């Protein structure tokens, strides 16, 4: 039997002993009158053989098996929300493995794990090595994130001419997406038009409340007027600090702080509102050690014009230990999250001690440089206060404290 439920089974009997003949062969409940019965569904069959030459008759029972029916089981599922896409992992059983998987995505995804999912219904076809297949639907509930991308950019004809234009497109959220460009006066729709050179931000919001923000830059690059002086970028511990001074000049609204990894493509990080003081300082706490960053400022004036600063670069040297450790929730009856930054890739050891100073947990994690998130499960431990420690070879140990509650 090739596949469960089909009628392509076959059974054959052989005659032994002395046969005078002719013979009469009868299969029941079906199968015909030959030594081989074809096109059989799974089941139990009786074959009767009569030797008409000597009157001898015998019968036997033949079982035609079939493979187990193909089935698809969901092993793990992550529903999409406004910040992340969904995922689903399935497992095929029955039939005759190994199995191949084909999802109705564009492009087609193969394998038992499907990623990058918006909310919806997806079709999966599983085929075994005999060509038997099953098609199942997998429903992914939740909401679909909004994702913005640039469709086209048109630079201004000069630094003093407001004829730059940008067009973006957003997907997700099931449609009905609105656009808001952060300019004065505000512009809506996917296209920003008639603006000066500079950096701009657009927010796309879906009907489900999900939103995405995209920053882009329209040229040409225009030097700042004398109203911005002494712009510097330099490492400050595990962060990069920006300092600048705004001199007297035309009234301005503030500064857009932008960052780039290549010195060409910049993305808005923050906004510094114009204040009574002329000196400004801002710290970038999201940097990765040993990575060179490029910074510039876009000064926005009251009359709607914008000017770009020169580009400054800075890099934080790697440090071996953990910085900025946060532990939450405290207290907790189950999982506790430990978040922080690691200066360079390293093996991190987590130790946990009870109130008597006895070690109750020891785990190791191989982490990359940058932000990390570790989970600590308190559910196996009794209620109480526990002291913990993260240790990295060649660096100071970082203590922490957690509390197990009901």
Helix content: under 10%
CATH superfamily of the largest domain: Immunoglobulins
Tell me about the largest β-sheet.
5 strands, antiparallel
Q: What is the terminal separation in angstroms?
A: 56 Å
Mean pLDDT: 88
Describe the structure.
By secondary structure, the protein is mainly beta. It has 5 domains: 9-64, no CATH class; 71-140, Immunoglobulin-like, CATH 2.60.40; 150-218, Immunoglobulin-like (Sandwich); 227-316, Immunoglobulin-like; 322-404, Immunoglobulin-like. The chain is built from no helices and 33 strands. The protein has strands at residues 9-12, 23-28, 36-40, 43-51, 57-64, 71-78, 86-93, 100-103, 113-117, 120-127, 133-140, 147-154, 164-171, 178-181, 187-188, 191-195, 198-205, 211-218, 228-236, 239-246, 252-260, 266-273, 279-284, 292-301, 306-308, 312-315, 322-328, 335-342, 346-353, 359-367, 370-377, 384-392, 398-404. The strands form 10 sheets. Strands 21, 22, 24, 25 and 26 form a 5-stranded antiparallel beta sheet that branches. Strands 15-14-17-18 form a 4-stranded antiparallel beta sheet, with no helix packed on it. A 4-stranded antiparallel beta sheet has the order 30-29-32-33, with no helix packed on it. β19 (228-236) and β20 form a beta hairpin. The two termini are 56 Å apart.
């Amino acid at each position: 039997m090739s596949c469960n439920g089909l009628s392509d089974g076959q059974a054959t009997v052989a005659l032994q002993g002395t046969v005078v003949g002719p013979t009469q062969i009868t299969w029941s409940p079906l199968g015909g009158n030959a030594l081989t019965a074809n096109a059989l569904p799974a089941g139990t069959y009786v074959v009767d053989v009569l030797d008409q030459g000597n009157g001898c008759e015998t019968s036997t029972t033949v079982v035609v098996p079939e493979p187990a029916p193909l089935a698809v089981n969901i092993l793990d599922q992550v529903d999409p929300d406004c910040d992340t896409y969904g995922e689903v992992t399935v497992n095929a059983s029955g039939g005759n493995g190994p199995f191949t998987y084909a999802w109705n995505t564009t492009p087609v995804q193969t394998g038992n794990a499907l990623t990058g999912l918006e909310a919806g219904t997806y079709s999966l076809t599983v085929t075994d090595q005999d060509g038997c297949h099953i098609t199942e639907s997998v429903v992914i509930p939740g909401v679909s994130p909004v994702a913005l991308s640039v469709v086209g950019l048109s630079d201004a004809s000069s630094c003093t001419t407001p004829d730059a234009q940008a067009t973006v497109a957003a997907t997700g959220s099931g449609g009905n997406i609105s656009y808001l460009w952060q300019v004065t006066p505000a512009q809506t729709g996917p296209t920003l038009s008639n603006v000066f050179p500079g950096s701009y931000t657009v927010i796309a919001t879906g009907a489900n409340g999900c939103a995405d923000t995209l920053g882009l830059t329209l040229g040409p690059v225009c030097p700042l007027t004398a109203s911005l002086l002494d712009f510097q970028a330099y490492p400050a511990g595990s962060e990069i600090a920006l300092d600048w001074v705004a001199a007297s000049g035309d009234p301005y609204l503030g500064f857009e702080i932008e960052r780039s990894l290549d010195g060409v493509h910049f993305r808005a990080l923050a906004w510094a509102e114009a204040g009574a003081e002329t000196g400004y300082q801002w710290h970038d706490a999201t940097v990765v050690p040993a990575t060179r960053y490029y910074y510039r400022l876009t000064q926005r004036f009251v009359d709607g014009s914008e000017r770009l600063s020169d580009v400054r670069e800075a890099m934080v040297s790697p440090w071996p230990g953990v910085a900025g450790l946060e532990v939450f929730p405290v207290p907790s009856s189950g999982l506790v999250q430990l978040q922080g930054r690691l200066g360079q890739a390293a093996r991190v050891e987590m130790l946990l001690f009870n109130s008597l100073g006895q070690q109750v947990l020891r785990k190791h994690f191989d982490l990359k440089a940058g932000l990390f998130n570790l989970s600590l499960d308190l559910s196996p431990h009794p209620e109480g206060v526990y002291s913990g420690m993260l240790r990295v070879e060649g660096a100071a140990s970082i203590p922490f404290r957690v509390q197990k509650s009901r």
